[in-house]
Amino acid sequence: MKMAQKPTTATLKPNKAKSKKWDETENLYIEGDNLEVLKLLQKSYADKVKLIYVDPPYNTGKDFVYNDNFSDPLDNYLKKTGQVDSEGNKLSVNTEMNGRYHTDWLNMIYPRLKLARNLLSDDGVIFISIDDTEQANLKKIADEIFGEKNFLAQIVWERAFSPINLKKNFSESHDYILVYGKDTTKIVSNGIKRSQEANDRYSNADNDPRGPWTSGDLSVGPANEKNIYPIITPGGREVMPPSGYSWRLSESSFREYIEDNRIWFGEDGNNTPRIKRFLSEVKQTVVPMTVWKYEDVGHSQSASQYLKRLFDDKSYFSYPKPVPLIQRIIELYSNSDSIVLDFFSGSATTAEAVMRMNAEDNGSRRFIMVQLPEKLLEKEVAFKDGYRTLAEIGEERIRLAGDKIKEENSQNIDKVDMGFKVFELSKSNIKKWNVESNDLNEQIDLLANNFENDSKPIDVVYEILLKQGLDLTYPISEIKVGDAVVYDIAFGAMFVVLGDKITSEVAGHIMKQIADEEAENSVVVLQDEKFINDSEKLNTIEQLNASGIQYNDILSI
Question: What confidence tens digit (pLDDT) does each residue in 512-538 have?
Answer without folding.
Answer: 999 999 999 999 999 998 999 999 999
